[in-house]
Structures are given as structure tokens and as C-alpha cells.
Amino acid sequence: MSPVLAGVLQFLALFAALALAYRPLGDYMARVYSSDKHLRVEKWIYRAIGANPSTEMRWPAYLRGVLAFSAVSVLFLYLMQRLQGSLPGSLGFVSIPADQAFNTAASFVANTNWQSY
Questions:
Q1: 19 within domain boundaries
Q2: What is the domain extent for residue 99?
């Protein structure tokens, strides 16, 4: 089979799968995202983080959420790279130096993807 024919068949298979799935998946997503009902687990999470699901988030709360998530992400990525050599399944790689680990973690979170390795 030629690569062009394989590509066309793959495109047609993807198009057919999307054509079959868009209606049931779209109906499900509309039902989930427009419903006022919340699962018990969701209610517990809302209560734990102090969120009110029936009100819209104002920009100061959104800003705090984005900054907190970014700070936790930088810390997590930094630690993962610094502990890389001692993590299970490290494939024998050594840990990344501190400055390079911070540089890479900050660039991933800032979505610049600057990588010096």
C-alpha cells in the first residue's frame, strides 16, 4: 500500500469515527456541562476549596487560582527533575542540576518551552 493511500484511508477512518461519535458525545457533553446537578464528590470538593458552583468566578479569584496552580506546577516539575536519578524507572539518568531544573520548570509553566538540554 502506498503512503498516500494509507494517509487517505486514515483520514477517512478518522472522519467516519468523528461522524459517528459527534452526536452522542455532543449530547453527553451538553448534558454534563449545562446541568445544575452536582455529584456528591463534586460537592465535597467545592466545600473543601470554598467554591460556590452557582456563582461566576471574578477575576481576582481567577488570578489567585492561576498563580497558585503555576507555583505548584513549577515546584512539582522542579522536584521531579531534581529527583530524577532516584525515582523508580529512571533508566539510569542522573538528576538535572538545580539551575537547569528551575529554568526548564519555569519555561514549561510559562509555556515558552525553553529547553537547554
A1: no
A2: 58-117
Please return the burial class of 41, using the count of CB atoms within 10 Å of its CB with bins 0-12, 13-18 and 19+: exposed
Instruction: State how far the Cα of 30 lies from the Cα of 25, in Å rounded to an integer.
Output: 9
Q: Can you tell me the mean pLDDT for 48-75?
A: 91
Q: Are 71 and 105 in contact (CB under 8 A)?
A: no
* Nearest partner of 83 among 99, 107, 69, 101, judged by Cα: 101
pLDDT number for residue 64 = 92
Whole-prediction pTM value?
Answer: 0.61
Cα 9 to Cα 31: distance, rounded to the nearest angstrom: 33
Domain count, the chain: 1
On the question of pLDDT at 46 being above 80, the answer is: yes
